[in-house]
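In practice, a research group might receive sequence data for several interacting partners and want a quick structural hypothesis before committing to experiments. The following worked case mirrors that situation: the sequences arrive first, and a predicted assembly follows.
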Amino acid sequence: MLTLYSFGPGANSLKPMLALYEKGLEFTPRFLDPTVFEHHQEWFKQINPRGQVPALEHDGQIITESTVICEYLEDAFPDAPKLRPTDPAQIAEMRVWTKWVDEYFCWCVSTIGWERMIGPMARALDEDAFEEQIKRIPIPEQQVKWRNARNGFPKEVLEEEMRKIRVSIARLEARLSESPWLAGPDYTLADICNFAIANGMQNGFAEIVNATDTPHLIDWIQRINARPAAKAMFANAKSEMPERHKASADA
Amino acid sequence: MLTLYSFGPGANSLKPMLALYEKGLEFTPRFLDPTVFEHHQEWFKQINPRGQVPALEHDGQIITESTVICEYLEDAFPDAPKLRPTDPAQIAEMRVWTKWVDEYFCWCVSTIGWERMIGPMARALDEDAFEEQIKRIPIPEQQVKWRNARNGFPKEVLEEEMRKIRVSIARLEARLSESPWLAGPDYTLADICNFAIANGMQNGFAEIVNATDTPHLIDWIQRINARPAAKAMFANAKSEMPERHKASADA
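A structural hypothesis for the assembly, expressed as tokens:
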């Protein structure tokens, strides 16, 4: 039995969720509500002591880290539709892309997302309530990120992150102008893991991601959104931000 | 045919090098000398446009990123001795550890290493020669790191990195006090990739990594150094820092 603990279908939560839909694996979705800090509650820290979603429970075993969960599904369900190439060099190419999104692309987009969305949420709490929530966060770097979001990230940090976003988008556009999918001829976890971050940027970062400047990236976002698995996921999955995800799905 | 482009047997270069030795795969070592910035020379940027070692050439195909190369060797040489478990949950456990070293552990140790070793090297160049080298570095973040090393990293950065080193070492010690190897009963890429960073810390960070405070970590470092593959690697591999690596191998 599979249970996926996650936020709505965006960012890291989207990765294993879309992979599960693509592979046609039945699972029990367990939505956690970030607006009430549910992932920092004790019951969930029993499942993942780091207090981070997504986490997958498979027959009582817990797998964490979104990208690791995606590859786990490939290893544990070899008979389901494959999202990993079979040629070793193409697998390596896929992993360079999934690694890049985890080490570079996701962070710059995340900072801007936190500035825009987590900042107001953190400022809506009074000092005591905020400190109460902070205390429950097991990762010190996440505590710092919450404080930065509440205070507003420094201007030079935001500028540097926007620079990295432009570098990232240029990299994706360049690759997609020469290849239908990121790791080569086939749709793989490279696409799913990057889509998790890129989808929605045609709305939230429309000055960078748009049909004129990044036609191949826009086409790729649309092709993934048009897949039956993505449609089913967006239609079924609970979300903390229904408006945004509806908009993404309509892209 | 396999060719490994790398620095000496330490840090990221050590990962695929030790994996090749453990798997008994014949390869041509191509040592690049970081003290003359050989990895930023044009000939090497033809191989890896990012100007980063290690890189593996296999029958004309280039594989980059140390951890990706390690898993590539598992995929491409399934008949060689395995460094990846076969049970999917244990593979996931291994990947949590290889991901953690790449996203957390390696960075804090790297900053201190750069402060101690790259800083003096960068300051030995006059302004013009330094700027000439900087121009050849393709990754902007690496250019910034070189400038920081030359100027000396800010005190608060060094303190934060030392905090992360202590967190990292405590995490390794805790895990190794309950398990012989990081990903469970078997020696895997989790061990090789973490050893790449941890080995030598018993010398350079002896106030944190020592037989009194971290007996299990010290024992694990010694067990890996005692393996025939590690001994052969340290005996054969060219190094930019022969003294340090000799010390490590004697640990």
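Before designing any experiment, note the following. Residues 88-123 of chain A form the longest helix (36 residues). Chain A touches chain B through 23 residues (CB under 8 Å).
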